[in-house]
Amino acid sequence: MPRAKFTSSDVDLMARLMRAEAVGEGRLGMLFVGNVIVNRDVANCLDFTDVRTIRDVIYQVQGGNYAFEAVQKGSLFYRRPRDAERRLARKNLKYWTQHPAKYSLWYFRPSGDCPSDWYGEPFSGRYKNHCYYEPAAGTCPSVY
After folding, report:
1. I want to staple 18 with a disulfide (CB 3.0 to 4.6 A). Which of 30, 124, 128, 132 is the partner?
2. What is residue 95's three-state secondary structure?
3. Nearest CA to 9 among 31, 22, 17, 60?
4. Which residue has the higher pLDDT, 73 or 48?
5. Which fold has domain 8-143?
6. List of long-range contacts for 66-74, beta carbons under 8 Å, 24+ apart
7. What are the Cell wall hydrolase SleB domain coordinates in residue numbering (predicted)?
């Protein structure tokens, strides 16, 4: 059973975002971003109670801006997905999870070290340029 329901359009959309957000971090970096996308889809807590599809996750607006910067500013996001990224997206949607993004709902790229928390949510780890954060214990059981 897949981690999240998806269509071929969802795979393409997710593949585009994974590449736009983390192509410089290779396959593993893109898979970590994919983990966050799927986690937000299955989460029914915090900022993610209104997102029920991959499309909802990717086009979610928070604070007047898209939640993922690449949707708003990234020219890579608006290019066609490649087969390699489609395979990675399907892998995330079907089964793949790994630390530090296994339970993460957020990530960002700081200019220096990763803060110990991100808006009160605990740091789970870093991969190359991105810091990953998961919900505080007990605040989002649907992710775990």
Report:
1. 30
2. coil
3. 17
4. 48
5. Arc Repressor Mutant, subunit A (1.10.10)
6. 68/17, 68/21, 69/21, 70/17, 70/20, 70/21, 71/17, 74/20, 74/21
7. 24-133
Residue 10 has a CB neighbour count (10 Å cut-off) of 21
CA distance 17 to 5: 17
Answer for the pair 30, 47: CB distance below 8 angstroms, yes or no. Answer: no
Where does the pLDDT of residue 44 fall: very low under 50, low under 70, confident under 90, or very high at 90 and above? very high
Residue type, 93: L
Strand extents, DSSP E, the chain: 61-62, 65-66, 106-108, 117-118, 121-127, 130-133
Is there a contact between 103 and 3 (Cβ–Cβ < 8 Å)?
A: no
List the structure tokens of 131: 């810091």
What pLDDT, on a 0 to 100 scale, did the predictor assign at position 75? 86
The CA distance from 77 to 13, in Å, is 8
Q: 94 in helix, strand or coil? A: helix
C-alpha pair distances (Å), 82 with each of 65, 89, 132? 27, 11, 25
